[in-house]
Write a structure and sequence with these properties.
By secondary structure, the chain is of the alpha/beta class. The protein has helices spanning 17-28, 49-54, 67-71, 74-84, 94-107, 124-133, 145-154, 178-187, 209-222, 237-246, 263-268, 283-290, 303-306, 324-333, 335-352, 355-369, and strands spanning 4-10, 34-40, 58-61, 88-92, 111-115, 139-142, 160-163, 195-200, 226-231, 253-257, 271-274, 294-298, 314-316. It has 16 helices and 13 strands. The strands form two sheets. It has a seven-stranded parallel β-sheet, sandwiched between helices.
Length: 371
């Protein structure tokens, strides 16, 4: 029996949440039944390429300096599909979605589109094009019920739209290497008995890393045994670094830069904190929970579908982010409570957000909708 050939199309293969899912899902797919291809457009955002290829995917970059040039690649994508006998396209995020819909219109190849964000948060032009073109595809997926409801409210599509919750590889993301914990702490001269609060994020406005720094600064001011670590990079680095300097956090909060392998940093963290103003369903949150980090977060977007407040994490309303400082202090000063939330976070993800369940649902769609 010949394999079903699936083409993923995404704007970049950097370290965003949507991009990080691709190698992880590929590891779980039944590659004896499916063959996976990947096209991306921003050659300088290629951090996931090696991981995808190592897992068995076939990756191509159709270089595009801007969104218009990205769309102009639709004819090249059509040629690629014909050459490789692609039977279904799986697009991620708006601009990859737009070009995939053009290919669908020209060829009839079924397109499944995964939406990772709320429609309300897109630029008005992106939002308008998304709404105008949305029905020129086969099926839409929201990564959380919050995202799906945003599609239904803002677009009111005539095509089917369903929710498939993001998942995480709970076998891979688990604590098992105390040497990695020590290595990270030694690298930044963080005491072994310190409470380390961390996050993994692209430096974008929605992550509100300026607020993150204010929250931890207040906590450190009351408990000097709290330290912080931020894993990631992005366009707002100058502003975030300036905020770090303004708050005199040198030697207390550390920046690791962009990291392809984030597991050692999760291993070193006691608490994972998110101060986001909006989210879809963040992969970093699921990874941190799977690694047994206690969670302190705003209730942005799909986060509230993962965290049950005061059961397996601590949440505050988006506008009440300043309350997270007291939560950090409580966890830092109560080791038994910290251990409880760490254990419950792991249990929550292992039970409800396994990547195997996500892959099973995706494969059933590929079989149902392929050419």
């Amino acid at each position: 029996m010949s394999k079903i050939k699936v083409l993923h199309i995404i704007k970049s293969l950097g370290r965003g949440g949507a991009e990080m899912l691709l190698p992880e899902t590929l590891k779980e797919h039944h590659q004896d039944q499916f063959e996976f291809h990947y096209i991306y457009f921003l050659p300088w955002k290629n951090q996931m390429v090696e991981a995808i290829e190592f897992a068995g995917g076939k990756v191509s970059c159709f270089s595009a300096k801007n969104n218009i040039k990205l769309l102009l690649h639709y004819s090249n994508i059509i040629k690629y599909c014909k050459k490789n006998q692609i039977q279904i396209i799986h697009a991620h995020l708006p601009w990859a979605g737009f070009v995939s819909r053009m290919v669908h219109f020209k060829t009839g190849i079924p397109v499944i589109y995964t939406e990772h964000n709320l429609q309300e948060r897109y630029h008005r032009i992106t939002k308008w094009i998304n709404k105008w073109s949305f029905n020129f595809q086969t099926l839409a997926i929201g990564v959380s019920e919050d995202v799906t409801q945003s599609i239904l409210k803002n677009i009111n599509p005539t095509i089917s739209c369903k929710t498939i919750l993001n998942g995480v590889n709970v076998q891979h993301f688990q604590r098992n290497n105390s040497e990695q914990t020590s290595a990270v702490r030694k690298q930044y001269d963080i005491p072994e008995d310190a409470v380390l609060v961390g996050t993994v994020a692209v430096f974008r406005f929605q992550k509100r890393l300026d607020k993150w720094l204010e929250i931890i600064s207040e906590a450190i001011g009351k408990n000097p045994n709290i330290f912080g670590i931020i894993v990631g990079a992005g366009i707002l680095e100058p502003e975030i670094f300036a905020k770090h300097q303004e708050l005199n956090l040198e030697g207390k909060v550390f920046f690791t830069g962009l990291q392809t392998n984030v597991k050692p940093y999760y291993e070193a963290m006691d608490v994972f904190m998110m101060s986001s103003s909006f989210e879809g369903l963040p992969i970093a949150l699921l990874e941190a929970m799977s690694m047994g980090c206690a969670i302190v977060s705003t209730n942005a977007g799909g986060i509230k579908e993962v965290i049950q407040n005061k059961e397996n994490g601590i949440m505050v309303d988006v506008d009440d982010w300043e309350k997270m400082s007291s939560s950090l202090l409580t966890l830092a000063e109560n080791p038994s409570q910290l251990a409880y939330f760490q254990s419950e976070a792991r249990k929550r993800v292992a039970t409800n957000f396994s990547i195997k369940a996500m892959v099973t649902q995706l494969e059933s769609l590929y079989i149902a909708y392929r050419l």
